[in-house]
Known about the structure:
0% of the residues lie in helices and 49% in strands. By secondary structure, it is an all-beta fold. It has one domain (15-123): Jelly Rolls, CATH 2.60.120.10. It is globular, with a radius of gyration of 14 Å. The model has no long low-confidence stretch (mean pLDDT 91).
Amino acid sequence: MGKKYLVVKGKNSKVIETPYGNVKTLIGLSQVSDICCGLGMSTMTSGAYVKQVHDFSDTLVFVLSGKGKISFDNKNWLEIAQNDAVFIKKGKEHEIKNVEKVDLKVVYFSTPLAAIPSDGHRFLN
């Protein structure tokens, strides 16, 4: 049986730099080996854009600050801003872009997790 509780100090979490900003995993498989979900933060820099699909996980996104746009399956762009929440179903292609001159910061929660963390996101062009 794994851990029964865990407190993670965000300042101690590993930051992964990406072409669109950075990602910080707060709680995931590297912290709890038998966990079925993940929690993290992502920062998109001004003008950044990403197109991706999560093949293994449903994902909830909560916008902490900034403004952006999100599109599903190359369709209409929807505005997202502070205190907005987004649900993304497993396998749903989506695009996110930061449309402001300040960072777009979000918290995300994904479940279930891919067995190999790098398989959790598939980036599309």
